[in-house]
Amino acid sequence: MVECNIDARGKAARLLGGVSAILAASIFAILLATNSISIDFGWYAIAGAYFGGAFAIFEARAGWCVVRAMGIKTPL
Predict the structure, then answer these.
(1) Which residues lie closer than 8 Å to 64 by C-beta, 6 or more apart?
(2) Which of 47, 60, 73, 74 could cysteine-pair with 14, CB 3.0–4.6 Å?
(3) 45-75 b/e with 16+ CB inside 10 Å = b?
């Protein structure tokens, strides 16, 4: 079902992007929880960033890219 379709550079890029997204979402969550910033849809953005980061880490671990699986060529 999930077949490896990216190389080591693609895996590294997805892992770095996923970890960065989760780190940024954590910082944003702390700022939002302490009322340092106030945004109406902030928790939805945090949830989206966590999900996106976790999915990118899954892609890196599996060696699979959903965009490539759909037939779109990516540079990495």
Answers:
(1) 2, 3, 4, 5, 6
(2) 60
(3) ebeebbeebeebbebbeebbbeeeeeeeeee
Domain spans in the chain, listed from the N-terminal domain onward: 8-69
Q: What is the model's pLDDT at position 68?
A: 92
Q: What angle do CA 23, 53, 19 make, to 5 degrees?
A: 45
- Residue written as token pair 């880490």: 57
CB 2 within 8 A of CB 60: no
